[in-house]
Structures are given as structure tokens and as C-alpha cells.
């Protein structure tokens, strides 16, 4: 296996293997181990021996030639000068050491060729000076691998000096497959970690690598120490297609595998917290420009969630589930934007306190997998006598708002603020997906309450909206990708090591071949996934009424609510007369009633038709609210009564007054939007 390391020329070069333990390599013998350790130190000694042999052969060939003496002298001077010039790109110490070595060796060779290798002191100089020069290179090699004892800058060959970080030191590098991590110590009182962050582009240029391949992780306990991470090869260039979930039937508390990092490590995300690991529950923001692969990223996350046994998903998509249609039947509740999403937002707000009370009553400070099981443990009982209560478990709840910019535009930029701040304690995670999480679309309070972010390619000016400033300073730049590298992303989330934050990853791609697998996953979720617990179902039904139906059919088999709604709409008696029930008692032979006032053609300036009486109008209005509730349209306003007003000759101002009266009667509740009211289900109002 090939690895990378810093060499004295300041570049990232390759070498084979690291030190072997006794018994490894070389046939598994001690001799092989010793030979392996000695090999790096042999070149200077081989050069010493070759110089002596060349001197003996040269004397045999040119011992009596004056012209050869002139040529050898000129060659010696020329080689020494060339060595000095070629050493310009290395450190000053290495340049001088190389030039002195070449000058001494070439001078001895010239003398040996002309006078003879055993004449006068020539042989003594060879036997004493040669080993000294060879040993000096051996010592230099030892010091090169021990930067703590070497002069400043010897470990990086002047790399840091080139990028404006002179006198900074690089320590022993940790070499992994396609990843080098080197500790950096800066000049005390002269340099800070910010100086390294600003020099990352120059370091990448010096190493001939893209900027995303070089990042810096500061030491949280020091302003002058950190780790420089270099990934020479982009392992993300190869597209990996999604083939199925990573952990079918596992718990939502286990990591979601959504892709891989640039060094090949899996890209993981956690949603629930873990009190033993000290990890908090989280919400996720998925942000990326058009063409950045945001849809595939969302599918990676959603398929992982739906494959777990103890979670339910409420999903809103104003694009009518264009990307998520194969998975829709596995969702506990789906909405297509508009009024449906308004109802879902109101329902999410209502279930938070109900779920929080249940968790607190059963002794859970936060949701854990045990909360999704039947409560047979006396330590988690709501009974005052301490015996196991046997209450049904409460599955984890994921509320997902796709293309959330549409929802924020309709409901206000602080729509999710309360949800984001309170939902984590209720065993819930909020997932918000939009292209540009700027402050004119999402309130700062909401953005601050979304601890996790999957940042895909974007406009360079939008990087600060997605990623924390510290991660950008460490080398993360999604703006460098734009829409040219779909699926490339940075992930910041609890449970991930902070030094991984500036490491790019890539999610898997969904093609047409993934559709049958997604459909089978949705079918598995119908039959094996969790269902809403009584507390959650009761709270949402009290707000959404018939708009929330869950996934359970009459025979107990899970089924998508959308499919059941179609079946109920089509469930009608095909036999008998094709006549409305209210017209069944009309005698077709009876004469039509006489005209009433207002039924004839209108005169200019008068209203058409007959207005209902006040009592009749109020009854019609009550019937209209009941009809809206039956249809699942639980958020209404005057504009929803436009056709109704035209039909019954009533004005929108009259409807506005009746809405306020209905609110006083408890049939409606005000929402955060002016002029919008939430219908209180009839049973709840009663």
C-alpha cells in the first residue's frame, strides 16, 4: 500500500510502507527486519564505495594524461556549481551540505585519478573523510524524521516559509491511506491559527493540489497549534449509485450512512441524542444551489430514516413529491404544500408539548430507543406506585419540510423557530431543505436552532449562510463546486469529529434503477415500520382532524393515507338511481315553485339571486366549516370562501365577521398569520 509523507523538498511525495515490526516482511526473520531498517541509510555508503572504485579505474586509464587532469578539474568545478544551483529550491542547510559533499568527493576523485588512490595522504583521506561524509547524511536522515530535534523548518523543506509561515514547525506526520495529518506549531507571539487558515490556498498551490484537498484544524486549547490535513487524491470523483439502505430494521439511534468522505471513510449522520456518548439530538438543514445534488442527498437521508423500525416521518413537499413519489407510501403523513402544510405545521406545534409530557412522565430526559418499546420497565413508569405501567412506546418523529422556501414565504420566516427550539426535547427532529438559507428567508433564531447542516455546492457568496465561519476558515468551500460536482458536500453535525467538518464528502446517486428498490423499501416501512403512538396521534388529530389519517387500514394492514383517501372517495354504491340523496323525495311531475323576490333578472345596481336569511346563512357557514374539516382543509380564511360567497350571495366581509364569531365559540383558533384560522375538530370543540 502506498502512503504519503512530507519530504525535504516541501512537496507531498509517495513512499512504500512504514517501519516493519520484527517478523514482518523480509521472510519474517530478524535479518529481514534489520535489512529493512538499514536500507534507507545505505546510499551514502554506496556512493563512498563507488567513488573509491572510480578513482582506481580513473588512475588506470588517465594516470599519465595531462589533458585528463584538466578535464577532471573542470568537471569537478562544474558538478559542484550545478549542485549549488539545483539546491536553490531546498533549505539553505541542505543546499550547503550537498554542495560540500559533491566538492569533496569530486576533488578526491580528481586527485586519485591523476596521482593514484594510494599516493601520499589520498588513501587516508578516503578512509577517514569518506565515512565522515556518509555518516553526516545518515545523521541528517535521522534528524529529518525527528523534527523536534531538528532546526526550524527542516521537516517541511521550506514549504511553510514559501507560504508566509516562516519559523513555523511541522511535526511527525500521521500517514493514513490517502490522508496525511501533520501537527503544526507556530511561532509564539508572532503567528496564530488564523494565519494558517489564510495560507491554505498558497499551501495547496505549493503542493499542486485543489484548495479543498488542504484544510487546517486548530487546537481548541491553543492559538498556535493545530493539524494540517492533506488529501492528495480525490476519491469522490467516482460516482457511487445507491443500492439500498445500510441498516434495514435497525434503530433510528444508529448512524445514517449517506455517502463517503474523500478518504473513503463512511459519511455518517445521527438524529437522536445519546446520553452515554454525550451527543445531543439534532435538526438538519440541507442547503445547496440548483444542480448541486440536493435531491439525491435528501433521498439518501430519507431512505436511511425509513429503513429504521422505531421512527415515523411527516413530510411536506410543495413540488407534489416529484423526487419522493416511490417512498410516499412509507410516510406516516404527507402534505403537498399550501393549506396541507399549514395544517402540518400547526400539528407539529401541538404534538411537541404532548410528547414532552409523556417522556417526562416516564422518566426520559431525552428520547432513547427504549422509549419506543412497551414500557414494562419500572424505572420508566408513569404510575405513582412505581409498578410498570405498560404504556405503548413512543417512536421517534421526523418532520421534514422539503423546498422550505415556499413554506417560509407563505407562513413567515419564523415559521419553524418554535419547532426548532423545542422539538429536540420531544423526541423529534426537524429537517429543512432549501436552496439558499439566507437571513431574508429564514430567521436568525431558526438558523441558530438547526445544529446540523449538509452544505452542497452553492454560490461562493452564500457559503456563510450554510456553514459556520470556523469551518470555512478551516478550508471548507462549497462555493468552489457550484453545480459542477453534484452530491459533493460538507457535513457539520453532532457525533462527527470536528476535524472532519472541513472534509468534503459525496452522497450516493439515485438513478432510474433505484426506483424499484425504493418502492420495496416503502412497502417494508408499511408493514414493519412504527406507527404513531396514542399520545402523538391524539395530539395531531385534535389539530388536524381528518387531515391526519396515519397508515393503518381497517384490517390492520398499513396503507398510505393518500391511497386510502382515494378509496374512500370512490367508495360509493353503484346501484340504484343516479340522484343526490337530498333530491330523492322530489316528485318529478310536481309543478315548480313560484318566483320569489330577487329570483328574477337583476336590475342594474342590484344583487342577483336571493340572499339567505341570517339564520340560514349561519347554518350554511357552519356546514361549510364541517365540509372543510371533512376534506382535511383545517386552515381557512376569507379567500377560501370566495366560491361559497358567490354561490350564496354573501360578501367576504360577512365571512370575516363569522370567522371571528366562530373563534369566540371555540370552533376556530387564530394562527400566526393574519386572516388565517385553524378549524378545531368538532369532537375536540365539543
UniProtKB/TrEMBL annotation:
Renumbered residue ranges of the record's region Disordered: 549-616
Keywords, ordered alphabetically: ATP-binding, Nucleotide-binding
Domain FtsK, first and last residues per copy: 264-465
Residue spans of biased composition, Acidic residues class: 580-600
Entry coiled-coil feature ranges: none
Listed Gene3D superfamilies: P-loop containing nucleotide triphosphate hydrolases
Entry binding sites for ATP: 288-295
GO function terms (MF aspect): ATP binding; DNA binding
Name of the protein this chain belongs to: Sporulation-like protein
Amino acid at each position: 500500500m502506498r502512503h504519503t509523507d512530507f519530504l525535504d523538498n516541501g512537496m507531498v511525495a509517495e513512499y512504500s510502507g512504514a517501519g516493519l515490526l520484527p517478523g514482518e516482511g523480509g521472510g519474517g526473520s530478524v535479518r529481514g527486519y534489520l535489512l529493512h531498517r538499514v536500507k534507507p541509510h545505505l546510499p551514502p555508503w554506496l556512493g563512498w564505495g563507488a567513488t573509491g572504485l572510480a578513482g582506481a579505474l580513473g588512475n588506470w586509464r588517465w594516470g599519465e594524461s595531462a589533458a585528463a587532469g584538466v578535464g577532471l578539474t573542470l568537471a569537478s568545478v562544474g558538478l559542484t556549481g550545478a549542485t549549488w544551483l539545483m539546491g536553490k529550491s531546498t533549505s539553505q542547510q541542505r543546499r550547503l551540505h550537498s554542495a560540500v559533499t559533491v566538492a569533496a568527493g569530486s576533488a578526491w576523485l580528481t586527485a586519485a585519478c591523476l596521482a593514484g588512490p594510494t599516493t601520499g595522504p589520498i588513501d587516508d583521506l578516503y578512509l577517514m573523510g569518506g565515512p565522515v561524509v556518509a555518516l553526516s547524511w545518515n545523521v541528517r536522515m535521522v534528524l529529518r524524521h525527528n523534527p523536534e530535534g531538528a532546526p526550524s523548518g527542516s521537516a517541511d523543506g521550506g514549504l511553510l516559509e514559501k507560504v508566509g509561515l516562516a519559523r513555523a514547525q511541522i511535526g511527525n506526520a500521521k500517514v493514513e491511506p490517502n490522508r496525511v495529518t501533520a501537527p503544526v506549531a507556530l511561532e509564539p507571539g508572532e503567528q496564530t491559527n488564523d494565519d494558517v487558515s489564510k495560507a491554505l490556498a498558497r499551501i495547496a498551490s505549493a503542493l499542486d493540489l485543489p484548495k479543498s484537498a488542504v484544510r487546517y484544524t486548530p487546537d481548541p486549547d491553543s492559538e498556535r497549534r493545530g493539524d494540517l490535513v492533506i488529501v492528495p487524491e480525490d476519491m469522490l470523483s467516482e460516482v457511487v449509485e445507491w443500492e439500498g439502505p445500510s441498516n434495514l430494521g435497525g434503530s433510528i439511534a444508529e448512524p445514517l450512512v449517506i455517502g463517503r468522505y474523500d478518504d473513503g471513510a463512511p459519511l455518517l449522520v445521527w438524529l437522536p441524542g445519546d446520553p452515554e456518548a454525550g451527543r445531543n439530538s439534532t435538526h438538519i438543514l440541507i442547503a445547496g444551489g440548483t444542480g448541486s445534488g440536493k435531491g439525491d442527498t435528501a433521498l439518501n437521508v430519507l431512505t436511511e430514516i425509513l429503513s429504521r423500525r422505531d421512527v415515523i416521518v411527516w413530510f411536506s413537499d410543495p413540488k407534489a413529491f416529484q423526487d419522493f413519489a416511490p417512498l410516499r407510501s412509507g410516510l406516516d403523513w404527507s402534505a403537498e404544500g399550501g393549506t396541507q402544510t399549514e395544517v402540518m405545521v400547526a400539528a407539529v406545534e401541538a404534538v411537541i408539548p404532548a410528547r414532552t409530557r409523556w417522556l417526562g412522565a416516564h422518566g426520559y430526559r431525552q428520547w432513547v430507543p427504549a422509549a419506543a418499546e412497551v414500557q414494562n420497565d419500572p424505572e420508566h413508569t408513569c404510575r405513582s406506585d412505581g409498578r410498570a405501567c405498560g404504556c405503548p412506546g413512543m417512536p421517534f418523529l421526523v418532520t421534514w419540510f422539503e423546498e422550505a422556501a415556499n413554506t417560509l414565504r407563505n407562513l413567515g420566516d419564523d415559521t419553524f423557530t418554535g419547532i426548532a427550539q423545542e422539538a429536540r426535547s420531544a423526541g423529534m427532529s426537524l429537517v429543512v431543505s432549501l436552496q439558499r438559507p439566507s437571513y431574508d428567508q429564514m430567521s436568525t433564531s431558526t438558523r441558530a436552532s438547526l445544529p446540523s447542516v449538509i452544505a452542497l455546492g452553492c454560490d461562493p457568496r452564500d457559503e456563510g449562510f450554510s456553514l459556520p465561519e470556523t469551518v470555512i476558515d478551516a478550508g471548507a468551500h462549497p462555493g468552489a463546486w457550484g453545480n459542477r460536482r453534484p452530491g459533493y458536500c460538507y457535513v457539520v453535525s453532532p457525533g462527527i469529529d470536528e476535524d472532519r467538518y472541513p472534509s468534503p464528502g459525496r452522497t450516493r446517486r439515485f438513478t432510474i434503477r433505484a426506483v424499484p428498490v425504493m418502492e420495496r423499501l416503502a412497502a417494508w416501512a408499511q408493514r414493519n415500520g412504527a406507527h404513531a403512538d396514542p399520545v402523538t396521534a391524539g395530539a395531531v388529530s385534535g389539530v388536524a382532524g381528518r387531515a391526519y389519517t396515519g397508515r393503518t387500514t381497517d384490517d390492520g394492514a398499513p396503507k398510505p393515507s393518500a391511497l386510502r383517501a382515494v378509496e374512500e372517495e370512490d367508495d360509493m354504491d353503484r346501484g340504484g338511481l343516479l340522484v343526490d340523496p337530498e333530491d330523492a323525495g322530489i316528485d318529478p311531475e310536481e309543478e315548480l315553485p313560484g318566483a320569489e323576490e330577487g329570483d328574477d333578472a337583476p336590475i342594474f345596481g342590484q344583487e342577483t339571486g336571493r340572499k339567505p336569511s341570517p339564520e340560514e346563512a349561519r347554518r350554511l357557514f357552519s356546514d361549510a366549516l364541517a365540509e372543510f374539516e371533512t376534506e382535511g382543509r383545517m386552515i381557512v380564511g376569507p379567500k377560501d370562501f370566495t366560491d361559497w360567497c358567490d354561490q350564496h350571495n354573501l360578501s367576504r366581509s360577512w365571512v370575516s365577521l363569522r370567522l371571528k364569531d366562530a373563534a369566540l365559540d371555540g370552533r376556530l383558533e387564530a394562527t400566526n398569520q393574519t386572516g388565517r384560522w385553524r378549524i378545531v375538530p368538532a369532537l375536540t370543540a365539543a
